[in-house]
Design goal:
Elements (H helix, E strand, L loop, with lengths): L4 E4 L9 H16 L3 E6 L11 H11 L9 E2 L4 H13 L3 E4 L3 H10 L30 E4 L6 E5 L3 E5 L1 H4 L4 E3 L7 H12 L3 E5 L6 H11 L5 E5 L24 H11 L9 H17 L6
Helix pairs in contact: 1-8, 1-9, 6-7
Length: 298
């Protein structure tokens, strides 16, 4: 069995908030409880959305809370050649195709099929530009989509239990590289997890819906499947996931024990200590005991 390698992969669209720390702490604790390594990856592949200096602030917030990585962070913005190499491998294998559909084109095609996009749901791509559909091509530069196989794809989550998703039905052929040349989250995260040897992914429950797509892509690229654990979410006052989009405040790490205790409470841990190192040591033991006894997160 490969040695445990975990990671925390924030997007530098702003500083960490309370929900971010829950995911960061859980991934760090899981790695330390397994005697493994914990890596940091700055997911800045979508550079137009990134805030200058945010990734350095994130690193400082983590350091204030004692969450130190075992090597220098990986920056996705420096890895375009690796993503292009993976894309071209999929092109050569006949697993991708160019797509010139805009978002409005997809919405129009779905309306014609009598499908309505659910609130907060995905636009399920109907395969308009698949070559076998014979759709007239435009000369407009387009995106690249992955051909997705049909059928339910099962996977297991250490907290949520057995999961399954039919990616073809629920998502459709998804984009790997956008028309503006930006590589998508799905391609970047799968390539990076493979290169970094990630064996365990611990992240927020809001990302669980991405898992089946990533497994499809891992299979297409011949990469191993990590173990997954999706943690509880911190909710905003509107009852939705706390996020920068709904006004989440920057994490205040001037009193790191206060921040750590709040994150631990979400994870079902109760830790008392006077210093950050002592707090983290106790938290690792609690996490190890919890999972060794077959327990579950809230």
């Amino acid at each position: 069995m490969p040695k445990y390698v975990g990671r925390f992969a924030p997007s530098p669209t702003g500083p960490l908030h309370a929900g971010s720390l829950v995911a960061a702490l859980a991934s760090w604790l899981d790695a330390r409880a397994h005697g493994g390594r914990w890596l940091l990856r700055i997911e800045d592949v979508d550079t137009p959305r990134c805030v200058p200096g945010a990734h350095r602030l994130i690193l400082q917030q983590l350091a204030d809370c004692g969450l130190q990585a075992d090597e220098a962070p990986m920056l996705q913005s420096q890895r375009a050649p690796q993503y292009e190499s993976a894309l071209q491998a999929l092109v050569r294998a006949g697993l991708t195709y160019p797509c010139s559909c805009s978002r409005k084109d997809v919405e129009s095609a779905l309306q014609q099929l009598g499908r309505v996009k659910p609130r907060h749901g995905l636009l399920v791509y109907p395969g308009t530009c698949r070559p076998e559909r014979g759709t007239p091509r435009t000369h407009k530069a387009g995106a690249w989509r992955l051909r997705v196989p049909g059928g339910a794809l099962p996977w297991a989550d250490r907290r949520l239990g057995p999961q399954a998703q039919d990616v073809a039905h629920n998502v459709g052929d998804f984009v790997l590289k956008r028309a503006d040349g930006v590589y998508t989250y799905q391609l970047a995260v799968v390539v990076d997890d493979g290169q970094q040897g990630i064996t365990h992914v611990v992240r927020g429950e809001d990302l669980s819906d991405n898992t089946a797509r990533q497994i499809v892509l891992q299979t297409a690229l011949g990469l191993p499947r990590p173990s997954y654990l999706h943690t509880p979410l911190v909710l905003g006052t509107n009852g939705e996931k706390l996020s920068k989009q709904n006004g989440a405040q920057a994490l205040d790490t001037r009193a790191p024990l206060v921040a750590l205790n709040a994150a631990a409470h979400v994870l079902g841990l109760r830790v008392q200590a006077d210093t950050v190192p002592a707090w983290l040591a106790k938290a690792v033991r609690q996490w190890a005991d919890h999972w060794a006894s077959g327990g579950d997160l809230p």
